[in-house]
Amino acid sequence: MIGIVVVTHGRVAEELVNAARNIVGEIPAVAAVSIGWSDDPAAARTAIEEGLASLEAAGGDGRALVLTDMFGGTPTNLSLPFLSPQVEIVTGVNLPMLIRACARREGELAEMAGAVREQGKGAIYVASEILEPRPA
Amino acid sequence: MIRRELRIRNRLGLHARAAARFVHTAGRFRARVTAGREGKVMDGKSILGILLLAASQGSAVEVTVDGPDEEQAMAALVALVEGGFGEEP
What is the dihedral sign for C-alpha A119, B45, B16, B58? Predict the structure, then answer.
């Protein structure tokens, strides 16, 4: 099973994983790395490393999808050095992406990453464009 | 194939956890399941698809099941939806 690590500013990662758990139930091989505003970068990098390392004991197969909040931000920048054939990174994490990732844990890592990206982009709506407006 | 129109009874409508329960129930069966509303038809085994129906309390969702265990699948889905997903009404 491909592991999942969510890495974000503040406590967004933890709460995103909590929200996903409340919706889909227990999620195996997942780690949340919340990088505090005043955390030392070296400590934050270690936290990401530990998050990745924790996956195998939780049912991961050595591969991981890292979901970060924003391209160019520190959580992403600190995650990028872990990029490898076994570790892919997708930025701009949102709840639909995490739910999609949880539903698709086998197969090719690159395919999972692509599917999660498409889900994230496709799950953004302007409500009035898809719903009938309420009568005035 | 069996087709039935089900009424959403719980106050929060077909929200995320209700959609997850629907998908979890549908996933116990081999039958293909769809859920549709107002021209949209979604895979009944996809949480994010079900959420797109935007079915609030009182709206009708057309459920189809197609496969060897379709009768049991429909019975389970009817019980779930008509039971308000086990939530307070």
Answer: positive
